[in-house]
Amino acid sequence: MHLSSILSFGAVASVAYANSFPGFSVASDSISTIKNILSQYCIILDTKTYPDLSKVYTADAVADFTTIGLGVLSGLPAIEAAMNKSLFGIPTQHGMTTSYVSDISEKSANATSYYTLQQFGTGNNTGQLFTVWGKWVDTLVFENSTWKVKTRDVVAMGGPLIGNFIVPTH
Ligand SMILES: *[C@@H]1O[C@H](CO)[C@@H](O)[C@H](O)[C@H]1NC(C)=O
Ligand SMILES: *[C@@H]1O[C@H](CO)[C@@H](O)[C@H](O)[C@H]1NC(C)=O
Ligand SMILES: *[C@@H]1O[C@H](CO)[C@@H](O)[C@H](O)[C@H]1NC(C)=O
Ligand SMILES: *[C@@H]1O[C@H](CO)[C@@H](O)[C@H](O)[C@H]1NC(C)=O
């Protein structure tokens, strides 16, 4: 299918949607953009390409990682440094599942996303796993033609952390 026909199909589909839910076609595009940015966060952490966190967080973002021991991180440099410090040398897989975007307006939105962080043991700990379950409760802003996280609360979910604590935590 040519790009132009995909786009026109999308336009027809969103007009149809907008007829039943006025204004929603615009919001649904923001929802996919926001979810994509939150997914990119997982990839940035797992590839340890921390400078790219600037694509996810605003320069003045405040991220509260208190529940997993990193405190309140104010500003992009503090966030980058804390991620590098806590994940240094640890292969990881961040998975994002449930992701609910709400309260969208032209310039702001809220999102709650569940995540699972697997940390894989290396060397003598090869085969060991350490798992963290939590959710990100985010507020986002639309600036410079893109959505970014302005505040993030990291909330721990449920029961005990699972796995081998020999694998460094966070
Ligand atoms: C938008 O761009 C301006 C100028 O580069 C910058 O000062 C500002 O921090 C940017 N806003 C966000 C949310 O990244
Ligand atoms: C990342 O953390 C390691 C270990 O603490 C440190 O040696 C290194 O300089 C840090 N890298 C950056 C770019 O901050
Ligand atoms: C968005 O989330 C923030 C922080 O959790 C909350 O204070 C605010 O009321 C929410 N916005 C709306 C429109 O519900
Ligand atoms: C791995 O285990 C061996 C045998 O117990 C030990 O000699 C070695 O120091 C350990 N290596 C590391 C990096 O802990």
UniProtKB/TrEMBL annotation:
Q: Which UniProt keywords apply?
A: Signal
* Record Pfam families: SnoaL_4
Question: Which superkingdom heads the taxonomic lineage of this protein's source?
Answer: Eukaryota
SnoaL-like domain span: 30-152
What span is annotated as the signal peptide, if there is one? Answer: 1-18
Entry protein name: SnoaL-like domain-containing protein
